[in-house]
Amino acid sequence: MGVNPDIAVFAKALGNGHPIGAIIGIPEFMDSAKYSFISSTYWTERVGPAAALAVLEEMSRANVPEYIAGIGQDVKDTWKETAQKHKISVNIDDGFPCLSQFAFIHKQSQELKTLFTQFMLEEGFLAGTGFYPSMAHNAEIIRKYGLAVDRVFGKLSKIIETDSIAKRMTGPAAQKTFARLLK
C-alpha cells in the first residue's frame, strides 16, 4: 500500500478475533521499549499467538487480500450496473474494494438507505450501503446478492418515480453517522 509508519499496532484482526496484540516499528522506536516495563492483558495467553500464526499462514496460502479485493470489486460493479439499469443515482466509493460503500444521490438519501436495508432484509440479506467482504463470500453468494440488489433497486426505482418513499418505510430513517450525538 506504500505506507511505512514509524510504528504500527495490530490487535484482534491479527488473530481473527482471538486476543493478541503486536507493536512493530523502526529500530529507534522499538529499541526504546527495552527501557520500560510493558504489561499486557494477554501476558499469559497462548491461544492468541497460535491463532495469529494460523491467520498469517492462511492469508499467505489463500492470498486473502487479493481474494477479498476481488469480491469487493464484484459487489461495487453490481451496484454500478444495477443502479444504471434501474436509473438510480448512486455515488460508489472509489476507494479500496475491501471497504466498499455507496450512497444514494437524492434529497431523501437517508430514507432510500433505510428502504434498501428494509428490502434487502425481505430478500434474506442483512445488508446496508456498505460491504466488507470476507473469505466466506463466494461467487454463489455474490450472485444471489446481486439478484437481490436487482430486485431491490427495481422496487426503489418505482418508489422514487411515484414519490412514495415515506409511505414504504416501516420505521424511522437511518441517521447520518454521529447525527444523534450532535443533538
Low-pLDDT segments, ≥5 res: none
- How many strand units? 5
Helix and strand content put the structural class at mainly alpha
Q: Biggest β-sheet: count, sense, barrel?
A: 3 strands, antiparallel
Give the overall form: elongated
Strand order in the largest sheet: 3-4-5
Q: Could you name the CATH homologous superfamily of the largest domain?
A: Aspartate Aminotransferase, domain 1
**How many independent structural domains?**
2
CATH class of the largest domain: Alpha Beta
Number of helices: 6
Can you tell me the CATH architecture of the largest domain? Alpha-Beta Complex
Question: What percent of residues are in strands?
Answer: 5-15%
Helix and strand element order: EEHHHEEHEHH
CATH topology label of the largest domain: Aspartate Aminotransferase, domain 1
Alpha carbon gyration radius: 21 Å
Provide a descriptive summary of the structure in words.
- The protein is built from 6 helices and 5 strands; from the N terminus they run E-E-H-H-H-E-E-H-E-H-H.
- Strand 3 and strand 4 form a beta hairpin.
- It is 45% helix and 10% strand.
- It has 183 residues and is mainly alpha-helical.
- The mean pLDDT is 90.
- The chain has helices at 27-30, 47-62, 64-85, 109-122, 139-161, 165-168; strands at 7-10, 22-25, 90-92, 100-104, 130-131.
- It has 2 domains: 7-62, no CATH class; 64-181, Aspartate Aminotransferase, domain 1 (Alpha-Beta Complex).
